[in-house]
Amino acid sequence: MIYSSLTLRTINTVAKYSPGFPSSFTVKPRAMVFIDGENLAIRYGDILKDSGTSLPSNVIYEPNTYIWAPWFSAYTSMPYDVLRTYYYTSVQGDEAKFRQTEDALKNAGIEAPKVFKKAKGRRSKRVDISLATDMLTHAHRANYDIAILFAGDEDYVPLVEAVMNEGRRVHLRFVQSGLSPALRMKADTYTDLSELVNMYGN
Questions:
Q1: Rounded Cα–Cα distance for residues 174 and 193 (Å)
Q2: How far apart are CA 173 and CA 51, in angstroms?
Q3: Cα(71)–Cα(148) distance, rounded to whole angstroms?
Q4: Dihedral of the alpha carbons of 85, 90, 94, 100, in degrees to the nearest 10
Q5: Could you identify which of 28, 51, 127, 202 might form a hypothetical disulfide with 88, taking C-beta atoms 3.0 to 4.6 angstroms apart as the criterion?
Q6: For residues 170 and 148, what is the distance between their CA atoms, to the nearest angstrom?
Q7: 175 in Cβ contact with 53 (< 8 Å)
Q8: Of 138, 172, 171, 136, which is closest to residue 153 (Cα–Cα)?
């Protein structure tokens, strides 16, 4: 069953203040996760280099391509009902390299990895465009209540504004060193992932 944001608040308020109301009726807000994995991997690499931190054993990381770890997942699951996680990145190489990257992300628990071809020395614009298209399309179709966005570029500000105009909320996750102040101010909430990197990276 699909609930609007207003209905979710109403149900949860009634459940909270009505002692006899079944706890099973408390509904978590529906969320979808959208990750600019290419940029996140670039920033993570910079943090490792600057801090001299070694790569933790529970982190999957391909320089300039992808980064994921269980402690990132903890910042996407509670207190939401996460419907799907989208991960966008690009790679150089042949079809086997594409499949290898997709398999690595799938094995890490990413339901919908999207891997694009990258020209040498440049980021792929298809990462940004595809993320924006998916996030806005799902917002327009009311497929989620909250978008959890792992991104830092100021180019995403118009996307966040458009999603909010559809009545959705945007929770931002990224590292401080690569974050646009304008994007941080526009999002409903922000979590700095730099502390997680420092906490679990030693």
A1: 5
A2: 20
A3: 15
A4: -30
A5: 127
A6: 6
A7: no
A8: 172
Length of the chain equals 202
DSSP assignment of 123-147 equals --HHHHHHHHHHHHHHHHTT--SEE
Give the span between the Cα atoms of 179 and 96, in whole angstroms: 33
Establish if 22 belongs to a structural domain.
no
* Global model pTM greater than 0.90: no
The β-bridge partners of 89 are: 115
> Count of domains in the chain?
1
* Cα atoms in the 13 Å half-sphere on the side-chain side of 21: 13
CA–chain centroid gap for 198, Å, is 19
Pairwise CA distance, residues 93 & 32, whole Å = 30
Domain annotation covers residue 14: no
33-82 tens-digit pLDDT? 999 999 999 998 888 888 777 777 788 899 999 998 877 766 566 678 99
